[in-house]
Amino acid sequence: MAEHRTPNPRVGGSNPSWPANFFGMANKVKTNKPSKGSKGNKRGKKRAQGQGLGDLIERFKVFLEESKVEMRKVAYPSQKQTLATCSSVLVLVIIVALYLGIVDIVLSKIIKLILS
Question: For the chain, which residues make up each domain, given as ranges?
Answer without folding.
Answer: 20-74, 76-116
